[in-house]
Amino acid sequence: MSKLDRSYLLPSILAVGFHLVLGVLVAGTWFEAGAQHRVQPFRHVKAELVDLKSQTRAAEEADRARQQEQARQAAEKKRAEAERKKQADARRKKEAAEKKQRAEAERKKKAEADQRQKKAAAEKKRKAELERKQQAEAKAKAEREAKLKAARAQAEAEAEAERAREAAERRQAEAARMEREAEAELQRIEAARQQEAVRRAAEAQVVASAVAVIRDGIQRNWRRPPSARNGMLVGVKIHLLPTGEVDDAYVVRSSGDQAFDRSAVSAVKKAERFPELQGVDPVLFDRNLRRINLEFRPEDLRL
């Protein structure tokens, strides 16, 4: 049910109620009027009064009919008046309803316009706030990115400096290590050189002792020939065994005198064996004593 239909409901109910009350009042008046003009017949009236009674009844009927017509006309007039009043009330109500409806429409229109204006203002405000917020976020984002970029650059610079420092430390450590290794190598080389020198000195001493033994043994067995003269020299190569035995002997440089050369070879072979060489280290023996060269001079015997 629309709002306009609801506005006509109460007037319609009031109009119907008014007509019902009016009808009841008119009907009561009509029956009361009829009751007042009704003449009760007397049972003892004689027959000769019948015509008068009929005339009187006719007059009463006519009067009652006239009253009824008047009552009807009055009721009709009242109904018409009530209808006019009802119609006027209905028009007034309709006009009031239309006026109210127009006012409501104007109000709604104004409210809608206000709502649209408020909505537009709110939308404008929302957009402005959104734009401000976006600008603030963009500014904050730019600041964060700038800070992050600066932090990254600083971190990269610090990392680069740290890498350079670490590289320098590694280079220093490597240089120190190389220096230590070089120092250790030098020390090792020096120790090895010293050990080698000691070993060579020991070997030289052993070789010198062995040669001295060989020289003494050969010198004891050498008989110089009469043809020996000062200044003569013969070179003899001697092959020895680890047991100290003489394996071979032969001239590698002749003195020019065969008798002198043979005397030298004969002196070596007569020695036959040098027992002192058995205790010499085999490596040292192979390197220094297995084959040795001796030079024989008439005035002396020397290496």
H and E order: HHEEHHEE
The first-to-last residue Cα distance is 152 Å
Q: Share of helix among residues?
A: over 70%
Alpha-beta content class: alpha+beta
Low-pLDDT runs of 5+ residues are none
User: What spatial order of strands do you see in the largest sheet?
Assistant: 2-1-3-4
Rounded to the nearest angstrom, the radius of gyration is 83 Å
DSSP summary, beta strand count:
4
- Major sheet characteristics: 4 strands, antiparallel
The backbone outline, from C-alpha atoms, is: rod-shaped
Count of discrete alpha- or pi-helical segments spanning 4 or more residues: 4
Output mean pLDDT. 82
Strand content: 5-15%
List the helices and strands and how they pair.
Layout: H1 3-37, H2 50-221, E1 234-240, E2 246-253, H3 258-271, H4 282-289, E3 291-296, E4 301-302
Antiparallel strand pairs: 1-2, 1-3, 3-4
Helix pairs in contact: 1-2, 2-3, 2-4
